[in-house]
Design a protein that fits this description.
It is a single chain. The protein folds into two domains: 190 residues, BirA Bifunctional Protein, domain 2, CATH 3.30.930; 41 residues, SH3 type barrels (Roll). The protein has five helices and twelve strands. The strands form two sheets. It has a seven-stranded mixed β-sheet, with helices on both faces. Strands 11-10-9-8-12 form a five-stranded antiparallel β-sheet, with no helix packed on it.
Amino acid sequence: MTAWPEGYGRRVLAQVDSTLSEAARLVPELAGPEWILAHRQTAARGRRGRAWAMPEGNFAASLVLPATGADAALRSFVAALALRDACVAVTGRAAAFQLKWPNDVLLNGGKLAGILLESVGQAGAISHVIIGIGVNLARAPDAAALEAGAVPPVSLKQRLGVDVGPEMFLDHLAAAFARHEAQLRAYGFGPVRAAWLAHAARLGEVITARTTRETYTGTFVDVDAQGQLVLETAKGRITIPAADVYF
């Protein structure tokens, strides 16, 4: 049994529109960090408002975390490391999992999980960050609707034959997140960044990053101290704060 981390709340819902939306509604009444898991979502969403498919048996949860300032965005790296730890814990297959900047976990090159951060606050000041996480535990969504170049989805059960339920997976994920979050708070982003880079997909290889306005192609050389993607391009080294990455 994995011990539930001290100081973190836990809610399990049969159905909700979106765990992200439910988390935002709960912020005013929460005294500390809280995990919200739903077995079914009716209006799940991904990055930039994209729909997020959730076949039955997959994992959908959001963590409400008190956080302020620029460091709020660094929780995507904490969440990615925690996701990888949870996947390794339930499969025993450490070499199978890699991290794709800025917010995906890959299983043997296919997209297994995604992370979405939303901030909550008033008057321009962030008080909480909500970390939404979706994992293809049982089934991968239909790949037919993917845009060109997107990483095809895979699931734990279909790819590795591992059958794990959402609530058990949450126990592993919450414990791993608490460990990495404690490290971030105690030592800053440096150790988290180093651990993330140790498992980064396509580090040292040519990738394409698309922002809302520009497309950049270059060698993925680093993630900087603010969590930005660093590419070596034909025009020199550039840093990108937010983009979709294509291999």
